[in-house]
Specification:
614 residues; Rossmann fold; 13-stranded parallel sheet; 20 helices; 32% helix; globular; disordered C terminus
């Protein structure tokens, strides 16, 4: 069952297999309810050091199959399988003729393994024995639970967790350091009938996670937990876009402050074992409980894939009037009605993620948003928005518009969204940034990363965004001041008008086009490679500056000392006149420098050994 510890056990198998050298290579990939074949292929390929040149899944599968066939001893672990997964489609060799490649699967259903996947050896993972469960409970709650006053009630609380690790961990963490009265109250809550709406969740697991949720301190952290769960939030950037748009972070007006608040709240959730250690990962049982609570307490509606019956849901007038959030994921067909008849007076969040393999078929009717005027966050992913619905311009309260990996045409409607604070167009296909974006004078974050078709950025758009705090362009645009189709593009000098800028991701290809003194002391995080040769190898650093110098542009001209707390510094073509200046700057920073990686390339100069120690 869910929450029994299958994933943990599979990871321990992987660790032991590596340590005992049973296999030359061990690869782990989560499959989940909605398998992403390209993601699975990518995770296996990364471990093999394999780079795909093919775009199609079948082409990638053939290359992966050929590479895996060469391995003499490899273990592929596919975790959390819900339905039949064709290993041949993925590119994983198996069967009597492929003894070198072993496959380990985990699933909630024996039928999935034995009948659908034709697995010959299956091992049932049962609940923990009572003493095992108590040992884990003590580890998470602390040895004080064995005190004479507490032992009786704490033992009973542990028993109510029914030997489920996910229940034991969340409850024990929630009650760590609690008084006898809190323990007794928790026991009463765990013994009440379960209110779960999910048939796959054991009542003990639901009540345990619900108790841990109730023990979270403050509405802010509770709301964040529910949001991560029902909106399937995967990154801090997403959490920033959703949370700021919904106004979840109390007393926060700056993006950098919001990021700090998010990090604090995420830390609390991880400390409570409501989130896993990896990113914003959430155990699927915990997510199901979060969705159930959000549905009951916050009137959130969520649906996935083929389980969503669009006509039925949109026609329930009494229900839609109460919805505060609508989140649809992996939608494969056009289920959005042509003209919503009911009002959505409470709706604050509308999110649709199409099945990316069939995204070209999913569109939004032009008048779809006419009755959703209270919406504050719209998130559309893998959608075909040709053009963008004109009714979007009616959303006068919209704070966040996130269009990720969409086909776009006719973006000018965004100019009507005067209160917009966050505009994310990451991974979208469009060639012109419309001048109307420059009318969004309250915009705080603009994300254009991955917009590889972007060629035209008219002047004065960026300089008009006087409240902009975070700008992400990356490698999407580099034709600064170049004329394209009769339009002369913007100049890098416009960035000097952004006095509130604290985050910048910008790749400048031509170092000679770099204006003097372009970068400011206010930047808290940045990724600025300047030149043609830089790759993205060191993207783990939040303050990253790299430059390709030449005889015309020296280090002193760049004034990189204005950038605070550089963590990764890359210098290509360091000139002779720069060496002493560079060493002097490092000496000034001694003891206070946050530099973690220094990369010097293409220079025939050598630093004095005594100086290089600095």
């Amino acid at each position: 069952m869910g929450g029994i510890g299958k994933t943990m056990l599979a990871k321990e198998v992987a660790r032991k297999a590596k340590n005992d050298k049973l296999f030359d290579l061990v690869v782990f990939s989560e499959v989940s309810q909605s398998p992403d074949i390209r993601k699975i292929q990518g995770e296996i390929a990364d471990k093999l050091g394999l780079t795909f040149r093919e775009e199609s899944e079948s082409g990638r599968a053939r290359r992966l199959f050929s590479r895996l066939k060469k391995e003499k001893r490899i273990l592929v672990i596919l975790d959390n399988i819900w339905e039949y997964l064709d290993l041949q489609v993925v590119g994983i060799p198996h069967g009597d003729g492929d003894k070198g490649c072993k496959v380990l699967l985990t699933a909630r259903s024996l039928e999935v393994l034995s009948r659908k996947m034709d697995s010959q050896q299956n091992f049932v993972v049962g609940a923990l024995e009572e003493e095992e469960a108590w040992s884990l409970f003590k580890m998470m709650a602390g040895d004080y639970v064995e005190g004479s006053e507490l032992k009786c009630v704490t033992r009973d609380v542990a028993k109510e967790c029914a030997g489920l690790p996910v229940s034991i961990v969340t409850v024990a963490r929630a009650l760590r350091g609690a008084s006898i009265f809190e323990w007794k109250d928790a026991l009463k809550q765990l013994r009440r009938p379960s209110s779960t709406n999910f048939k796959d969740i054991q009542p003990a697991a639901y009540k345990a996670i619900e108790l841990s949720y109730n023990k979270l301190e403050g509405e802010e952290v509770k709301n964040l937990f529910l949001l991560i769960g029902y909106a399937y939030v995967e990154s801090i950037d997403e959490l920033l876009r959703y949370g700021v748009g919904l106004g979840l972070y109390q007393g926060i007006s700056k993006m950098e402050e919001a990021r700090d608040r998010i990090s604090t709240l995420v830390y609390k959730l991880k400390a409570s074992c409501m989130l896993l250690d990896e990113g914003l990962s959430m155990h699927d049982v915990v997510r199901d409980v979060a969705i159930s609570i959000a549905s009951a307490e916050k009137n959130v509606f969520t649906a996935t894939g083929e389980l969503f019956d669009g006509c039925k849901e949109w026609s329930d007038e009494s229900a839609v009037k109460l919805y505060t959030s609508i989140v649809l994921r992996d939608i494969k067909t056009n289920v959005l009605p042509n003209g919503v008849q009911q009002e959505y007076p409470q709706l604050k969040l509308f999110s649709v993620r199409a099945d990316h393999q069939e995204s070209s078929s999913l569109t939004i009717p032009n008048n779809f948003f006419e009755r959703m005027i209270q919406v504050r966050v719209v998130n559309l992913t893998y959608m075909n928005l040709l053009p963008l619905p004109s009714s979007l311009g009616l959303l006068s309260n919209l704070r966040t518009l996130s269009l990720c990996n969409c086909n776009l045409l006719g973006l000018s409607v965004v100019g009507d969204l005067k209160k917009l604070e966050i505009l994310c167009l990451r991974g979208c296909g469009f060639s012109h940034l419309p001048v109307e974006v420059g009318q969004l004078t309250w915009l705080k974050l603009l994300d254009l990363r991955g917009c590889d078709e972007l060629e035209v950025m008219p002047p004065n758009i960026l300089s008009n965004l006087s409240h902009l705090e975070e700008l992400y362009i990356g490698t999407s645009f580099y034709k600064w001041e170049v004329e394209v189709g009769g339009v002369k593009n913007a100049s890098l000098l416009e960035l000097k008008h952004l006095h509130n800028l604290t985050s910048l991701d910008l790749h400048i290809k031509d170092v000679n086009s770099l204006p003097r003194g372009l970068f400011f002391e206010k930047l808290e995080r940045y990724r600025i490679p300047i030149g043609y040769f830089w790759n993205r190898k060191y993207d783990i650093y939040s303050r990253d500056f790299r430059i390709e110098l030449n005889t015309k542009v020296c280090l002193k001209d760049v004034l990189i000392v204005q950038l605070q707390g550089i963590e990764h510094l890359g210098l290509e073509g360091l000139q002779e006149q720069d060496v002493q200046n560079f060493v002097n700057e490092l000496v000034k920073l001694q003891g206070s420098s946050q530099l973690k990686h220094l990369y010097i390339c293409g220079s025939h100069l050598a630093l004095n050994p005594e100086e290089s120690e600095v």
